[in-house]
Specification:
Oligomer: single chain
CATH architecture of the largest domain: Orthogonal Bundle
Strand content: under 5%
Helix content: 55-70%
Shape: rod-shaped
CATH superfamily of the largest domain: Photosystem II 12 kDa extrinsic protein
Largest sheet: 2 strands, parallel
CATH class of the largest domain: Mainly Alpha
Strand order of the largest sheet: 1-2
Structural class: mainly alpha
Radius of gyration: 28 Å
Length: 113
């Protein structure tokens, strides 16, 4: 009888430990989900037209302040503007090698022509 009681006690400890582990994992996942949704739901800053970077007059340093635009791409934008003249519309910047439509969508609210 005592041996059987010992086996039941050990089994219940294992069960309790599994439940405890499941609760901890669920809590961690809930915290991660909450953090991810609260960051993505944060209001985005929409600059006024005067605060946007004019891609026709911006220096290489100013272009580098845009997210996703490094020194090489900023130089190519600057060179394209020097060789071909001003951009007619902001979306014309995708003509520059290295500027994808996805990157343009990321910075569209930050630039003007």
């Amino acid at each position: 009888m005592q041996k059987r009681l010992y086996v039941i006690q050990n089994e219940s400890k294992g069960f309790v430990n599994r439940i405890r582990g499941t609760i901890i994992v669920a809590l961690i996942l809930n915290i991660a989900f909450f953090c991810a949704t609260s960051l993505s739901a944060a209001p985005t800053f929409q600059p006024q037209n005067e605060e946007r970077i004019n891609i026709n007059t911006a220096s290489i340093e100013e272009l580098q302040r845009l997210p996703g635009i490094g020194p090489a791409l900023a130089s190519r934008i600057f060179e394209h503007r020097r060789k071909h003249g001003s951009f007619k519309r902001p979306q014309d910047i995708v003509i520059v090698r290295g500027m994808s439509a996805k990157l343009y969508r990321r910075i569209a609210h930050l630039i003007r022509a």
